[in-house]
Amino acid sequence: MNKVKILAIVGSLRKGSYNRQLALAAKEIVKDTADFTLLDYQDVPLMNEDIEYPAPDAVKRVREEVKAADGIWFFTPEYNHFFPGVLKNLIDWLSRPVSENEPQVLAGKPAAISGISLGMSGTAIAQDHLVTLISFLDMKVMNVPRVTVPNAWQYVDDQGKLIMESIYPHLEKQAKAFVNFIQAKCL
Ligand code: FNR
């Protein structure tokens, strides 16, 4: 069977982001079954209807990447029991019709969610908010299994590198489930 195309969207712009490291670990796990790309969206401007049409180049580019993907895997931190504003801003752009003749690009796309945070929730509260948003946008959410890693400090070495050992089995389980979920939904 052909490899599925997974686009990873990390809700943190931080260079050493633990969520980014989680995404890179997932990339390694799925390398035989999926082409896995991390979306770079740092240049997407703040949503402003005054600049919506024609869409800024950065918005055009991220839309094309979403359109080309068979599934979207979100890796999100939790900021104040929510997902970060940078992610909400990106999704707000993606939620809008491309043109009068072309609808928004997220509808119907399979989605998975993982996250790691310093606090005890392990991003579970942020993930639930994200599920509400992306379900409204008609994404097909794989609710089980999700990965929620609390107390991130326990898994980080003194260089800020994630020690994946005990997280790995959960991520592997989710990765396999998501590839199957995508194949069942859209291939
Ligand atoms: C946080 N953090 C945090 N953690 C948590 O478990 N629950 C929370 O509600 C919050 N709130 C919060 C708000 C803001 C504004 C910041 C900057 C941080 C801590 C957070 O888990 C930690 O910074 C993670 O390391 C962020 O993820 P990345 O950047 O490592 O992927």
UniProtKB/TrEMBL annotation:
Tell me a GO cellular component: cytosol
According to UniProt, the name of this protein is NADPH-dependent FMN reductase
Q: Cite the Pfam families for this sequence.
A: FMN_red
Q: What's the source species' lineage? A: Bacteria, Bacillati, Bacillota, Clostridia, Eubacteriales
Which InterPro entries does the UniProt entry name for this protein?
Flavoprotein-like_sf, FMN_Rdtase-like_dom, NAD(P)H-dep_reductase
**Which residue range or ranges hold the NADPH-dependent FMN reductase-like domain?**
4-154
TM ranges? none
Classification via Gene3D superfamilies = 3.40.50.360
Q: Which GO terms describe its molecular function?
A: FMN binding; oxidoreductase activity
